[in-house]
Amino acid sequence: MKMIVGLGNPGAKYEHTRHNIGWQTVDVLAERAGIRVNVNRSRGLTGMGLLGGEKVLLVKPLTYMNLSGECVSPLAAYHRIPPEDILVVCDDVNLALGRLRVRKKGSAGGHNGLENLILCLGSNAFPRIRCGCGMKPPQWDLADFVLARFTAEEEKAVAAEVRRAADAALVFLTHGADEAMNLFNRDPEEEEKKRLLAEEKKRLRTEEKKQKKEEGSEEPENTSARTPDTPSDQTNVP
Q1: Buried b (16+ CB within 10 A) or exposed e, 40-68
Q2: pTM score, whole prediction
Q3: Which residue, 74, 83, 68, 58, is CA-closest to 10?
Q4: Is 19 in the active site?
Q5: 82-107 pLDDT per residue, tens
Q6: 157 CB-near residues (< 8 Å, 6+ apart)
Q7: Which domains are delineated in the chain?
Q8: Tens digits of residue pLDDT in 108-138
Q9: Which of 19, 79, 111, 175 is catalytic?
Q10: End-to-end CA, the chain
């Protein structure tokens, strides 16, 4: 069994804030799999079921962000889930909104939730999906920024990012961290530009072939080079 943990803070006050992208991702996964994440265990909301054919435990810690490990570590010990099978989804202020970064392991990188997980698990060798929540403006305090809600203009990008994070989690379950890294550590804007460019090249090739075909069908028949028929039964005259 594997565990997917969405980091965030409980309560309506923190819904749809930058710090709660992890919670939103778990909600999307739960909806896709028909798993109800409503069992309160080890100071967290949990739900168990099948996702991508794999048995999975979805977790939304209720400890608040800075003590996330106090929820996850006892659950991991009880279910005997090693760190490499615990996927953590969290926000990242060092990534642009819409960007994902999948890693097999690593440091906390200044993220208090990851730091507490490393402390409680006694290991940093757990995979994680870091979701860009936008760069902090210079005039903002970091805590105020991550606890702020997304703007109306950002909401569409956030929804797409959360869906991609859920897709990345599913690939992790079914094909492993390496494949998830290969597919999702790309800039979605650059990928979209490449897709549009490929479509335009394909369209131009189709138009070119069509034009050549039309030009070929309009060429007049060339009869000047034809020779008269020669009778096959000519008679020799003495």
Answers
A1: eebbbbbbbbebbeeebbbbbbbbbbebb
A2: 0.79
A3: 68
A4: yes
A5: 999 999 999 999 999 999 999 999 99
A6: 97, 98
A7: 2-191 (3.40.50.1470)
A8: 999 999 999 999 999 999 999 999 999 888 8
A9: 19
A10: 105
